[in-house]
Write a structure and sequence with these properties.
Layout lengths: L7 H6 L2 H25 L8 H14 L1 H22 L2 H26 L5 H5 L14 H19 L11 H20 L3 H9 L9 H8 L1 H12 L9 H11 L16 E7 L11 E3 L5 H9 L1 E6 L7 H10 L12 H4 L8 H6 L4 E6 L8 H7 L4 E3 L9 E2 L2 E2 L1 H14 L4 E6 L19 E3 L3 H29 L5 E7 L10 H5 L13 H6 L2 E8 L7 E6 L3 H8 L6 H12 L2 E2 L3 E3 L5 E3 L3 H18 L10 H4 L15 E8 L2 E7 L5 E5 L2 E3 L2 E4 L2 E5 L11 E8 L5 E4 L3 E3 L1
Parallel strand pairs: 1-8, 1-10, 3-12, 4-5, 4-8
Antiparallel strand pairs: 2-9, 3-11, 6-7, 10-11, 13-14, 14-15, 16-17, 17-21, 18-19, 18-22, 20-21, 22-23, 22-24
Helix pairs in contact: 2-3, 2-4, 2-5, 3-4, 4-5, 4-8, 4-11, 5-7, 10-11, 18-19, 23-24
Length: about 725
């Protein structure tokens, strides 16, 4: 009898053990993928297994493409381990230990820091590299031991159950496949990975990472960040080539330093949200000038225009460029430098001026966790960063803290400090969108060929400019009569997003089309140009600086202040003297000529800038190695120590009130009495008041009172001492 086995062709290519092992690899990868996402969505504080299981199933069903990509990556990692070791059991266990451990650490980092786990947390030499710091108590450790113990037991099944392994040739093929997949979907922006991600609408929400992790899944979201964290060295990067650039571009570039000024001038940089001059819009008329004071300063003081790397958002990237001299040109498109590349100390205006005896203060009228500013300012070398949580006056104008409050804080800090000050202040009042009425009334009317919606958008934006102009005038009037030499630099971070598809810009004729890819060079540049003014109360000399990259402003200011500077900043000064505007595809010379990618000067400047930035930001800092300790603050233990030092000095019972006396109180604090939150009235930075009748005090024992500060994500920033009353 003739027997036909339809599996013969397969068996000739693969032995049964290999087929079973491959099927097991798929099945176990599927289980591990689901398990990782289950752990990812598990509430650490209030564990509800059934609810989390349901949520995980729902996510996998509604986001099946995202789940599939998570599976591909897990399968690739598990295949890599299995092919190297030759056993599926062990490959599953090692993959599970690695990925589940990272997922658990991610959960704890969100709980304690408000941000998910990033690849750079693992790579950088700072406190974030200590993953175990987030696993804090005995129950956490027991949970990890149980999970890892289970995975180890699974690995030992290889000695009990039938072996799941591959022949050497299949292991080699599996290794190559796994390597290709990991390279394409995890490590690099390869053509294969980019194309597949785009086709399936997979994207990294860099500005909202916690949400990105929830939507994409932990493994996929983490891998999307891995792609952006890997910046490859230029093929010419080495010590000799850096020296060659220095010899050609810096050695003979003399920067005179004038030390005749006896006192060191304060430097106040105000980056006003979306500040721009809308009167340049064609075919639009305003009932009056929204920025008369700024316009006067722009005409009388040193001034010009800055080419911003962003439009309508990405504020922190402008901070990054101005303070470090580094350019977003050489980072991945859509990158957010503060979140991705400032995990360790870097050279900045703050660290450079600190060497000159300056105290550096960052101010921002929004939450410190946003764009990871509270950590980034530490690594930039600031003494403290005062974000919204620490503001003592919460006066709002429209939707956000008013510009005037920021001005008042700058004046207070100038009066409090005896040391020369460097302040970098970022406002929030005029942040978009502008398509609804946020003020009681708009004091400036707009006329022109605009739709009703576009008129409302432009008038709302313009009203914010009116307040910004008044705040600037208040600061300058104060400094005019001050005896302390002070420099004020005022500019916007980017042009405002005025309507969908650039509606205000197109309707007014400022640009011809809503498709940015069709803009001419002139249109593209003017959609990135913001006005800047540099005013001082001791130097009335005016200079027209033209248009320069925002990354060239820092070196220019050090020169303006007659300060010594690192070799890197000297190079940037030299660079800006030949190509003050430098972009990926073009540059402008001081005479205004536009040169393109075929021009030798353009090619050389872009090439050398990229290599020196890599050296300074990611490399070995060959250019400034000899004076590295002078220019980079590598140890900053007292950062924010001052503003976090909340103290209770006394508690007084008066009639039906409990008066708490102390220091560093702000309206955003919370108060616990015997561990329970209680309502209170904020009086001033030294006084808080509680209603005695609302408190459930222990009449026959101790009562513990504590004041703390928590951000909007529920992360505790600091706590006071416990004060005990009987």
């Amino acid at each position: 009898m003739l027997r036909i086995n339809i599996f013969n062709p397969i068996e000739k290519r693969f032995d049964k053990k290999s087929i079973i092992s491959i099927l097991a690899l798929f099945f176990l990868s599927l289980i591990l993928t689901f398990s990782i996402e289950f752990v990812h969505r598990l509430n650490i504080v209030d564990i509800s297994l059934i609810a989390t299981l349901s949520e995980t199933f729902e996510w996998a069903a509604t986001n099946n493409i995202h789940f599939l990509f998570n599976f591909f990556i897990v399968f690739s990692i598990m295949s890599l381990f299995s092919s190297l070791i030759g056993c599926v059991y062990v490959g599953f266990s090692l993959s599970g230990m690695l990925l589940i451990f990272l997922t658990i650490v991610n959960n704890y980092k969100i709980l304690f820091r408000g941000d998910p786990l990033f690849p750079w947390d693992l790579m950088l030499k700072n406190e974030s590299s200590n993953m175990l710091q987030y696993v804090t108590n005995r129950s956490d450790i027991i949970r990890l031991v149980i999970i890892f113990g289970s995975l180890i037991v699974f690995a030992l099944l290889r000695f009990i159950l039938p072996k799941l392994s591959f022949k050497i040739k299949y292991r080699a093929a599996l290794f190559l496949l796994a390597t290709l997949l990991i390279y394409s979907f995890v490590l690099k922006h390869s053509f294969l990975g980019i194309r597949i991600y785009r086709l399936n609408h997979i994207a990294n929400r860099k500005w909202e990472q916690e949400q990105s992790y929830l939507e994409n899944g932990f493994v996929l979201a983490f891998s999307l960040n891995v792609k952006d964290s890997i910046i490859s060295a230029h093929r010419n990067y080495n010590k000799e080539y850096i020296k060659k650039i220095a010899d050609n571009e810096i050695v003979n570039f003399d920067i005179p330093v004038n030390k005749t000024l006896k006192e060191q001038p304060n430097l106040i940089i105000i980056m006003n949200e979306a500040f721009w001059d809308p009167t340049v819009l064609e075919n639009v008329k305003f009932s009056k000038d929204p920025i008369p004071f700024f316009r006067q300063l722009h005409q009388e003081s040193t001034s010009g225009w800055l080419k911003s790397p962003e439009f309508g958002g990405g504020t922190s990237n402008i901070e990054f460029e101005v303070m470090t001299g580094n350019s977003m040109l050489f980072l991945p498109s859509g990158a957010m430098a503060f979140q991705q590349y400032l995990g360790q100390p870097v050279m900045s205006l703050a660290s450079i001026l600190r060497n000159e005896g300056y105290k550096s203060i960052g101010i921002h009228s929004y939450y410190g966790w946003f764009w990871n500013r509270i950590e980034s300012y530490k690594n930039l070398g600031f003494d403290k960063f005062i974000s919204l949580e620490y503001f003592t006056d919460l006066k709002y104008q429209g939707w956000h803290i008013s510009d005037e409050i920021v001005t008042d804080m700058i004046i207070d800090k100038l009066e409090e400090n005896e040391d020369p000050l460097f302040i970098y202040a970022v406002t929030m009042q005029n942040h978009g969108p502008y398509n609804s009425e946020r003020y009681d009334r708009n004091t400036i009317q707009v006329e022109g060929e605009l739709s009703d919606e576009s008129k409302l958008i432009l008038e709302t934006f313009t009203q914010g400019l009116v307040d910004a102009d008044k705040s600037l005038e208040k600061l300058i009037n104060h400094l005019e009569i001050s005896e302390e030499p002070t420099i004020v630099v005022f500019y916007g971070d980017h042009l405002p997003m005025l309507g969908q598809k650039y509606s205000v810009y197109t309707e007014s004729g400022y640009v011809e089309h809503s498709d940015a890819s069709t803009w001419s060079y002139e249109e593209a540049l003017k959609m990135r140009e913001v006005p800047v003014v540099i005013w001082s109360n001791y130097n009335r000399t005016r200079e027209d600086i033209g248009t320069i990259n925002t990354s060239f402003l820092g070196p220019y200011l050090l020169k303006y202040m007659n300060k010594d500077m690192p070799e890197y900043f000297k190079y940037l000064l030299r660079l800006s003297s030949t190509t003050p505007v430098l972009d990926r595809n073009y540059a402008k010379t001081p005479s205004g000529d536009v040169i393109g990618s075929e021009n030798e000067l353009f090619i050389r400047n872009l090439h050398n800038y990229e290599i020196l930035q890599y050296d300074q930001l990611f490399g070995k800092n060959y250019l400034d190695k000899e004076n590295e300790d002078r220019w980079i603050l590598t140890y900053n233990p007292d950062y924010n120590k001052d503003i976090n030092d909340i103290k209770i000095t006394n508690v007084v019972l008066e009639r039906n009130r409990v008066i708490i006396k102390g220091d560093k109180f702000v309206p955003s604090v919370y108060i616990t009495v015997n561990g329970r939150n209680t309502t209170f009235k904020y009086k001033n930075p030294n006084t808080l008041e509680l209603n005695l009748q609302e408190l459930n005090l222990n009449t026959n024992g101790e009562n513990k009172i504590q004041v703390g500060l928590m951000n909007s994500k529920g992360i505790i920033l600091t706590k006071s001492n416990e004060y005990i009353i009987n």
